[in-house]
Amino acid sequence: MNKVKSQSKTIYVAMSGGVDSSVAAALLKKQGYNVVGVFMKPWQPSASNSKSQIRNSKQILNPKSEILNGELCLWKQDREDAMRAAAVLDIPLLTWDFSKEYKKEVGDYMIREYRAGRTPNPDVMCNKEIKFGLFLKRALREGADFIATGHYVRLKPQFPISNFQFSRKPQTGFRLLQAIDKNKDQSYFLWTLTQAQLKHCLFPIGDYVKPEVRKMAKKFGLPNHAKKDSQGVCFIGPLDMKEFLKKYIRPKKGQIIDKEGTVIGEHDGAFYYTIGQRHGLDIKNGQGPYYVIAKNLKKNIIYVGKDKDLTTKKAHVSGINWTNSRIKLPTKIDVKVRYRAKSETANLSKRGDLEFRKPIRAITPGQSAVFYKGEELVGGGIID
Question: Is 40 annotated as a binding residue?
């Protein structure tokens, strides 16, 4: 865990009600810091979106979830869990209502991207706009020295190679590294962070594997030590994306066409499907499996092919952010095009063109291409 020199520092911890953020708060409290917990009330889709969504969400995450004013209140039980953890740790817990901002910055972004035919990454936007945007700014404004979250990632100090390079103003920076637990590593979702933000951030659990975190939670007496990990879209929970989108994008029947130009099925809206998708395709010719390999939004057509048809060696990335400003282009770099994907070597040009050493499967417009140098996250961008 990256450490702070003074034990008198005030740290605001984003507490979601889960075990990871609760242990993050516990570790900081144990080290003597002045810890303040903050629960961020999210926006959640109205209950009228999907009865099946409500039923599945309550079964998966929260049997005690309630419907309040047409809203599926998954957050209510999560807040109670955070309150119980804060009580055990004897720290205050604040509740900040970011529901309107989340709807605008994350929810509307999701809908806008799907409507444009791209596949968004709401977890990246949630981190950028909410956790390390609104939360960080408000915490600092209210007197925090640092914020902390339960992300599985490590932050390490970075020093100049030699002092003469910075003779007038010696500088230090931070390197964002993958977590020790590679199965839980969340660095992929943090590529939008900057050095200006990182200097105010702490990630207490990045040096631990998940079983250790749960053992610590039990040792600290946290009542949520056995709580299941959250699933689905950031802050929203389990979400039937197609059912969610139908409220905002009207269904429209269209054709499913194979590589040879033969109509082999029908769909209810090209907006709802993503590159590489296999399930949810109404194809009954018995020659599958088929995957979505391309879309034509204007004609409302989905093109499908076999798994081998999804591979390509080239992509273009825009909106690039460098977490570490040392990178000079062009460069050879390791790239992840999906959260669970393996890093693959590629050449990155000054214009954002990626050329991979070998063919990559299902590179999807709207998703994040995240750049690494070994274990270090150095930046990322959006796949065009």
Answer: yes
Is pTM, for the whole model, over 0.85? Answer: yes
Pick the CATH number of 250-305 from 1.10.10.10, 3.40.50.880, 2.30.30.280, 3.30.70.1270: 2.30.30.280
Annotated binding residue at 206?
Answer: no
User: In 3D, which of 265, 254, 256 has the Cα closest to residue 303?
Assistant: 256
Neighbouring residues of 373: CB distance < 8 A, sequence distance ≥ 6: 324, 327, 333, 334
At CA 187, angle to CA 211 and CA 272, rounded to 5?
Answer: 105
| Residues belonging to the active site | 126, 234
The answer to whether 21 is a known ligand-binding residue is yes
Strand pairing category for 146-148 and 201-202? parallel
d(CA 36, CA 89) in angstroms, rounded, equals: 10
To which residue do tokens 């499996």 refer?
Answer: 289
- The residue whose two tokens read 């033969």 is 262
- Kindly report the CATH number that applies to the domain delimited by 10-219: 3.40.50.620
The per-residue pLDDT for range 161-189, each reduced to its tens digit, is 444 343 344 446 899 999 999 999 999 99
